[in-house]
Amino acid sequence: MTSHPHNARSDRPHGQDRAAGGSGAGPSPARTGTPWRGRLLAAGLGAAVLAATVTACGPASTPDSGKKPTGSPGAKSPSPKRPFAPPILEQAWKSAPVTGDLLRTRLLGSWRTDTALYVGRGTGITVLDPVTGKQLGTIEPPEPGLSACGMSDGLSKDGLGALAWLKGDPGSPTATCDHITLIDTRNHNTARWTATVSAEPLGGKPLTDDTTRLGFTGDVLAVMTGNTVVGLRTDKTTAWTWKNPGVGPDTYVLNWDMAIGPDRIAVLLGTEHGATWTYDIATLDENGKQLSAMPAPMPTPKDGSIDLVSAAPMTALVRPDSFDHTTPPELVTFTREGAVARRIKLATQAGPATIGQFNLLGRAEKHNVQLTDTTAYVAAGDSLSTVGAPTQVAAFDLASGTHRWTRPVGEAAQPRFVGADDDTVYVLGGKSIADMELYAYSAKTGDRTKISTVKAPDSLFMLSSAITDYASGSLATITTGSSPGPGIFMFRAPSS
To answer: Counting beta carbons within 10 angstroms of the beta carbon of residue 80, is it exposed (0 to 12), middle (13 to 18) or buried (19 or more)?
Structure first.
């Protein structure tokens, strides 16, 4: 049976499990032991089977190319400027420990401005001074009884961010993450407005979900529900609405995830076929128009998963079962119209790429993959090995699908990509109990240059469970909150 991408890991928060209500159909929880908690309630209803077909490898056309992503896949910040980092980065501060229900303390996301670092968790949104770590405040729900359940992937060019809230018990099968607030970070974090964006009912029954997806394309906020994507202007009016292919008597089609680019939106659809599911990706333009008549079908290995990585450039991951250490994952690229361009097997001399994932709350996982317009960078090898094939960094050409190079990071390293430009990828490598190194690798040749040392923190933390955020000479490692411990470590150049 094929596992759903968002239920393939046993540590997935229960609030992100989804099922077709009534029948209980969906990915089996037996392998992971996670209790199955229904989230999408539409008793006796379903959605039409997607009938699109393509060849196994798709057309050999040019992949979509958006603006250059840098810090994280799909980001739109300017390319890193050299020198990318000071020669030494040392711990400047650490935040208080993450406490509370581990199902709600998981990370929603983070925003950065010149004067503040915003960290969102299911327990709330905290605003910190990036220089001192002092808490500057919190962003409160628009009304009592609401809890955070979604956070936009970054801010708009005007400093606007979006948060989603749900009312009542987050563990309730009727919990709906449908209260959306637009936050103005340039005006004392004031709320411009709060709107309710719900999925369309199916046969008179509510379609509910306790997480949502949010992101900006230009000046429009795209909000994904279980069966729609709604574009909201900054004045709260609706710019457009897109609905997935609809429902039939026996089958569900559900929106599982969304990735946002400057002028493209990718929507991952899951379709129920009795006891199994198939997955397709629909591509919308910035006006919410679907660019191809039918979404592009995705191949899914048994007990594997499909994950969106980025909409700029448009890419998805096809991953084998988590216990399969021999089959390489595949990176799928798309044309601007949403057709499959290439399927790239991520195999290297060090073995298959090891696509680390960071299980967050209220959105898809982030993956340890770095993209530019032309190149995909991944890690491969065994992070615990000191002989044979220790962890290495590999580059793949997106246009041709060829493996460009594989280069070492260091023994017992857990590499994290912290930025890239046309010529260079920047990689943080090292142990969680020793000094880490920041390397620059040439995009063309893989030649490596050490550019900085990150001094060990005064507390143990696992780099493998932290999101890295580099900006303006400071490196933040933000833990996902899946285990107790400090929430944030901030590193910067030693004070003179």
So the answer is: buried
